[in-house]
Specification:
This protein has 9 helices and 12 strands. By secondary structure, the chain is of the alpha+beta class. A 4-stranded mixed beta sheet has the order 2-4-6-3, with helices on one face.
């Protein structure tokens, strides 16, 4: 018996119909829009105004740090109301601010410092301050440039009892000053009879010695000799060493003249002037020593007024 074709066909058609419905449903599902989501409106953060710190009467550097800590920018004007083109020296005084202390400053705005002077005045004062500091440092370095060793017993070059000094004033004020017989000198660590580089003011001393007929064949040694003449008063025979009176020798006279000009506050400057002028030595006392007069720690040899003009 042959199977029924009609029954199989019906089954197939039924399966196709089911599949078509399923596909249609799937397609319909893909076209469905997604559910809507609600969004909250965007918000804008506001920046609060800042209060100006009290900077009046404070140095510029301190005022600058105060506004920086408060998150505020600044600009600077002088007493003439003109804005500064350069940052002023930190030590100048801020006399006022705009806005004033405690007032609120809107975001992005700057506070204005008013300085006690114009930019030209402040700049000039800063330059003078810098120059003064440089001069002070130069003086400190110069105070360490010279090293004296002086002996009360003989030549300071070989003596074992030398006393050390760094300034002429220290030598003059030493309790043993009147007993010192000689001094030796080093300049910047170099013995004065060796070659060393002269500072401009030292070189000018040597130049004057040369103009007065002195020996400047070794300039550094010449300067050292002049400086040593400022350390101790002339000893017996010192001023006749390079020639006899009345004229004396040009070397010692030129160096004595330079020493008198370089150390006019020396307690024995009258002796230097005497030697520079070619005047004979002062008379000795009964003990064979030159007459020396001391008052309030300053000593100088007494010289007849008719010889030097000094009394």
């Amino acid at each position: 018996m042959r199977p029924s074709i009609t029954g199989d066909t019906d089954v197939k058609f039924n399966m196709i119909g089911v599949a078509a419905v399923a596909v249609a449903l799937l397609l319909a599902g893909c076209g469905t829009p997604p559910p809507e989501t609600s969004t909250s409106p965007s918000t804008t953060t506001s920046v609060a105004a800042k209060k100006v710190p009290d900077v009046a009467g404070k140095p510029f550097s301190e005022a600058r740090d105060l506004v920086a800590a408060a998150g505020i920018t600044y600009e600077t004007v002088g007493s003439d109301g003109v804005k500064f083109t350069e940052r002023p020296d930190g030590a100048v005084i801020v006399v006022s601010s705009d806005p004033a202390a405690g007032e609120e400053l809107q975001p992005g705005a700057a506070v204005t410092f008013k300085i006690n002077g114009t930019e030209a005045e402040v700049t000039a004062a800063a330059a003078a301050k810098k120059a003064a500091a440089a001069a002070k440092e130069a003086a400190r370095v110069r105070s360490l440039r010279y090293s004296f060793k002086c002996s009360p017993s003989g030549s300071a070059i070989t003596a074992k009892d030398n006393q050390s000094f760094t300034k002429l004033q220290e030598i003059w004020a030493a309790p043993s000053f009147l007993k010192l017989m000689s001094c030796d000198l080093r300049v910047a660590g170099t013995w004065y009879r060796d070659k060393f580089t002269l500072e401009p003011d030292e070189a000018s001393v040597v130049k004057q010695v040369g103009a007065d007929g002195g020996d400047i064949s070794l300039p550094s040694s010449t300067y050292g000799s002049v400086l040593l003449l400022c350390a101790l008063p002339p000893a017996d025979g010192w001023d006749t060493k390079y020639g006899e009176y009345p004229s004396g020798g040009p070397k010692i006279r030129s160096e004595a003249k330079a020493a008198a000009a370089m150390c006019p506050d020396a307690p024995f400057v009258a002796e230097l002037i005497r030697v520079a002028a070619g005047v004979p030595p002062a008379p000795k006392n009964l003990h064979g020593r030159r007459h020396v007069h001391c008052r309030q720690g300053h000593c100088r040899r007494l010289i007849p007024a008719e010889n030097t003009g000094w009394s």
